[in-house]
């Protein structure tokens, strides 16, 4: 493993749950083995995904201006920007608040399920690799803060009714953060390497039960 601070390459071994590993040269953090095993992040991620689906199914906020009421959903915010000549911004909002969080919730759940039951599920390596690069693009938490700021500013102009979608989104973000605190990417890779792969039959040679 290479240290992120000083680039020193070092061989690291697995430590007991609750312990963390530091760089031997500069002492900076390398990885930690969280307590609670794989079940805790698995349960949190499952809860997070369910809440995230609810956040997409119900309106985030409803605005009432002079008797005219308009409600918006999570995907509706990006779509509204797209329709009002802000196509690039609309696509970015849709990607960072819908596509990326949905991929992270379902992808992490897929990887954790495979690791929990020691199954090398199809595409599990690719999914873990994708997840390792995807987190900087998840901005659902930034989105919630901006929605709250907008609600405070608009409360003087219109009646603002907070919908069930916003509460569900807040819950999904909290569960997602708690799940990430209970797992470590180095440990996930290490566990994946420990699962035996499928038996490979070389090309040109008959497999079991086949006739040459
Ligand atoms: Zn170091």
Strand content: 5-15%
Biggest sheet record: 3 strands, antiparallel
SSE order, one letter for each helix or strand: EEHEEHHHHEHH
Q: Give the spatial strand order of the biggest sheet.
A: 4-3-5
Q: pLDDT below 50 for ≥5 consecutive residues: which ranges?
A: 199-212
Question: How large, in whole angstroms, is the Cα Rg?
Answer: 22 Å
- Please give the number of β-strands: 5
Tertiary shape: elongated
Ends: how far apart?
Answer: 46 Å
SS class: mainly alpha
The helix fraction, in percent, is: 40-55%
Instruction: Tell me the count of domains.
Output: 2
Report the oligomer.
single chain
- Overall pLDDT metric: 85
Q: What are the bound molecules?
A: zinc ion
The number of distinct helices, counting runs of at least 4 residues, comes to 7
What report would you give on this structure?
With 212 residues, this protein is mainly α. It folds into two domains: 1-33, no CATH class; 36-193, no CATH class. It is built from seven helices and five strands. Helix 1 (39-57) runs antiparallel to helix 3 (87-116), helix 1 runs antiparallel to helix 6 and helix 2 runs antiparallel to helix 3. The radius of gyration is 22 Å and the shape is elongated. The model is unreliable at 199-212 (pLDDT under 50). Zinc ion is lined by residues 3, 5-6, 8, 23, 25-26, 28.
